[in-house]
Design brief:
308 residues; Rossmann fold; Helicase, Ruva Protein, domain 3; 5 strands; 9% strand; globular
Length: 308
């Protein structure tokens, strides 16, 4: 049997299996019972909390075959040509099921022209067509699209739900982990069940707590994010020192951004003389690094270092 990562192997297949999204599940369950699932649904929320999973569960509920389920990432296909392609196929009958579904992931990254063109499809959607939009940035969608879609908001999981999930999957995989390791996974998952299971996946086979904790810290980027945050909070930091830290990074910049925001938010909430500098970091790290990647991270750090 082909190996599967834990987050794929244990992906929920029914609404009742979803953890920590009670309000979203309540709404979707009610819509399903009334056979009133909207033809345009907007799934919004942080990365890795279940937007795509919910879309696939609805696919099954609606009787959509794999051949009729089209999934596009708008980070790669973001222009008006994507919409034209959909429009050219939207009137075709289902191949093997009852309906056809387009899941447009990261729809907030579609261009303004693409979104405007997409409006016409939402206004004249054939009865056998469903559009599921997923995004971490709902504020980037045109207001006219948001008002035409039924928004299902998903949240980051709390500590209790995330801990329960990690322990449950570990038991199913016959993996023994200590409470300390579970807490470490939860602390480094940013409320994301997917990230928690990725971290759990990486410690399977390691012999003791010490190795497991070290592996989590290395893989999560926690140390790298801490080094950046500590350097940025130092008003005397010089650019050569900051550049040296940045040159050694191997973690995804967007992941580091979230961690740095978490550290500096705690400083702001705690008050004190460093709060104003922490606010400066929050402002510079407000925009995501999906498109700009490491260049965006470098620019933000440069602006802070040379702010005074």
């Amino acid at each position: 049997m082909m190996y599967q990562e834990l987050y794929k192997k244990h992906r929920p297949k029914a609404l009742k299996e979803i953890v920590g999204q009670n309000e979203a599940i309540r709404v979707l369950t009610d819509l399903g019972k009334r056979k009133a699932i909207p033809h345009t649904i907007l799934f919004s929320g942080p990365s890795g909390v279940g937007k795509t999973t919910l879309a696939r569960i609805l696919k099954t509920k609606l009787g959509c075959s794999n051949a009729d389920f089209m999934e596009l990432n708008c980070a790669d296909f973001r222009g008006i040509d994507m919409v034209r392609d959909i429009r050219s196929r939207v009137n075709l009958a289902p191949i093997g099921g009852k309906c056809r579904i387009w899941l447009l992931d990261e729809f907030g990254r579609a261009t303004t022209d693409a979104q405007n063109s997409f409006l016409k499809l939402l206004e004249d959607t054939p009865s056998h067509i469903y559009f599921f939009l997923a995004t971490t940035e709902p504020q980037k969608l045109l207001k006219t699209i948001r008002t035409r879609a039924t928004e299902i908001k998903l949240n980051s999981l709390g500590i209790k739900d995330l801990s329960s999930l990690v322990v449950d999957i570990a038991n199913k995989e016959n993996v023994k982990i200590s409470e300390e390791v579970v807490d470490k996974i939860v602390d480094n998952s940013d409320g994301s069940p997917r990230k928690a299971l990725v971290l759990l996946n990486q410690i399977i086979g390691l012999k003791d707590d010490e190795e497991q904790l070290e592996a989590i810290e290395k893989s999560s980027g926690e140390r790298q994010a801490f080094d950046i945050a500590r350097a940025l909070m130092n008003p005397r930091i010089k650019w050569p020192e900051m550049a040296k830290i940045l040159l050694e990074l191997d973690e995804e910049p967007e992941t580091l951004r979230w961690m740095i925001l978490g550290y500096t938010s705690k400083i702001v909430l705690g008050g004190g003389k460093m709060a104003s500098r922490a606010v400066m970091v929050l402002q510079e790290f407000e925009d995501n690094f999906y498109d700009s990647k490491k260049a965006g991270l470098v620019r933000a750090c440069y602006s802070i270092v040379y702010s005074e």
